[in-house]
Amino acid sequence: MDYRAEGKLDKEVSGVVYDSRQVREGDVFIAVKGDNVNGHDFIEKALNNGAGAIVYDERGKAIEELMAGHGDRAWIEVGDSRDAMAYMSDLFYGKASERLNLIGITGTNGKTTTTYLIKSILESCGYGVGLIGTINYLIKDKSYDAPHTTPEACDFQRLLHDMAAEGCSHVVAEVSSHSLIQKRVDYTKFKVALFTNLTRDHLDFHKTMEDYYKAKERLFTDILSKDGTAVVNIDDERGRFLASELKKEGMRVLTFGVKSGDADVKPEEIKNSFNGTIFNIVAGQFGLNEELSSSLVGITNVYNILAAAAAALALDIPIKNIKEGIAMASLIRGRFEKVDVGQEFLAVVDYAHTEDALERLLLTARQLLEAYHVAAKTERMLKVKRRDFSVPEQCAEQRKGKIIVVFGCGGNRDKGKRSKMGEIAAKLSDFVIVTSDNPRNEDPKRIIREIEKGISGDNYIVIQDRTTAISMAVELASPGDIVLVAGKGHEDYQEIEGTRHAFSDRVALESSIRRTISRPAFGRGMNYRGAEAATC
After folding, report:
1. SS3 string of 42-90?
2. Of 57, 90, 123, which residue sits at a domain end?
3. Is 394 helix (H, G, I), strand (E, B) or coil?
4. What is the count of structural domains for the chain?
5. Is the same domain home to 100 and 218?
6. Which end of the chain is more exposed for a tag (fewer CB within 10 A), N or C?
7. CB 466 within 8 A of CB 408
8. What is the pLDDT of residues 16-33, one digit of tens each?
9. Entry pTM
10. Are 249 and 220 in contact (CB under 8 A)?
């Protein structure tokens, strides 16, 4: 790292920070440029709070005046403050990643579920495991709030240090594209880097899909240890390209896929139901053809399970522990999270907030719905043979079940995906309720109008209030239907005009179902055309 140092340099460092409010006596304050504020504007505050050294990359009159008045501090000019912060944080926390088996996961969708699956597999081996991700940070069984999917370099390295100190041997981390562009995980030693997929997202930040891909690619080309393993989904076009390029560079690459016959790790005989997924995992180079069973449902989770299993194989985890860990992994909060309080339809909360994620969610729901009704029809036929059936069951045979989806789009984010998500929702579900998500500082009515531009049919309504929209979906549902509430997943707030208000899709959905099933049956289960769903 190139730098120029001035002032008093023989100082003992007590900490590395980038937020002037957190500076304590003897800390190094690193001035970085953020999305909304510039750390260089807070150097004076950091000095007043006791900073012993200042690292900066924007030299100007204001900096020189501060240097003249604070010659008793160390002043370090660098070419890139973010690079310096990653480098210094790694050093300050004793190169913690070198004492850990670190697995990094990047991609548009599937990161969170895959981290929890890998964590479960590693715990089945008896390892102490840390997790860094969207929902929370975990040090073994201790949970901490996660303000960022991948924290800033100082915080990331401190977490790794604390995890090692608490006896963790392995850490699984979601690595976001933002963090890769901002060098939050640079100088970190990853044993495994995993690529899930690449679909449209964050184009308000990256501008183009090529820029977005290049950000993800850094984990494999710039950061993954030379003796590490890249685990890549080659059903994804960008993933296949990435795997090919890495192999040319002599990297160890382990591929997975559902559709790609040349994948190193792939599934056979996939069986999906409302209750879970069963398939055989086939990995020729490991001599594997073993049945895996999981409570997670849908083809999306087949990819997640394959990804987790491939990462485990890259770490030489025995198949016994892979099977046990996947079987033990419970539903992940906000990721196809089933809400069941005794209703006769499937209710699901999911974080799907991109067009690809919404499409996968709806296709999964359609597959499950078809499987459910095939099973139900078979059961009714058996009852007919036994002459053990009722009129409602005869009527039910004529209903195929419907998918009702509630969703909106976030404000101050990529606007181009809004109409596309509206188009996908209307095409792949039976009825759509367009509502507000996290409008942030945008007008929610405007966001909804942009979603509507993609909807050509009449199988939708608009209910801006999210609680009311969820309640309406529950009112419309009949036995055997699927209600999907998409977009917010695990989030426990709704951000409106810059203020976060307490709100949970899961709580709202559960409350609506409880209210509905506690009422008399008459009048419930109305379909969206207004006719009673139970009528033959």
Report:
1. HHHHHHHCCCCEEEECCCCHHHHHHHHHCCCCEEEEECCHHHHHHHHHH
2. 90
3. helix
4. 3
5. yes
6. C
7. yes
8. 999 999 999 999 999 999
9. 0.83
10. no
